[in-house]
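check this:
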Amino acid sequence: MKNINEISMLMRSAIENHATPGISYTLEDIKNKRTETCFLGYRTYNKEVPLKDGDLYDLASLTKVVGVTSRILQLLGTKNIRLNDKVEKYLPKFDYHDITIKNLLLHNSGLPADIDNVFMYKNKADVIDAIFNQKLVYPVGTDMIYSDLNFILLGLVIEKIDHKTLDESLKIHVFEPLDMENTGYCIDKSKSHFVPTEKTRSRGLVQGVVHDETAYMLEGILGNAGLLSTISDLKKFCLMYLQKGKYKNRTIIPSQMIDDLFKYDFMGRTLGWKRWKINKRMLWHTGFTGTSIALDLDNFSFFICLTNRINPTRKNRKWIDIRKLAISLFFNSLEEIPENRK
């Protein structure tokens, strides 16, 4: 794995330039037996609590790939669900008859990125009704809009198939088999275990509970956001991908389903994940709070980087460009974005 030193210098420079108060990251090259795990800086800019192994981060949209995509790939592998199944098959109240599971995974359903002003709704049922009745921005399958609504719907589909709440399903089928003991929704621990996110006018300092507003309104358990986890747990998740879906000789995701991820490319996206280069087995995803995972299956390596870049405010956007540069260094190439990539 190249550029370990360059990534390390970039991480330290990011903290010095106040892009984020602290960074927890790990780089692992299985083939060449190289690894680096670092906990740099502090939880907040007051520098009172240094970061350490075991700190719990709000994963934000990494929830989509670590949780929901994992379970959907399992269900596809066992044929409990099919990519071309209509969403209304599982959610009869959903208004759009042509949207499929595949559309949701590729973010080409045409649904908007989110619902406006979620705090105007009184309860969970009202929020779900609002999602079901959103107007399409584009015709189904014609363009890509990265939409939280797609994965909220996928989370509801999982609940319908598994006859369990989303948190219970992911715990049983994904986290427990991977020995991810510190990953889940609404983790019951004292605030001292959690890295804080944003300080907001309405909620104060958000720590130990989900930052995402829609997930917060839906009791913290949602398909688009809400998972909390640690560097150590996410290493097990990434290792599973590098081992063709296996962990400790147990099949977590069927290897065929991981192979199938590289059959799809709609404007740089495959099922759940983003693709870095069209002809390479490279996957990546990011989260609003400042998190990211990058997987290089060709070179048996991964890069996990967790920050709370929105502490104390989301107005600080310095980390976003730095994160993209770090991922470029990990993949040792620029992201490939052809104009006609659909």
Summary: The first helix runs from residue 4 to 16.
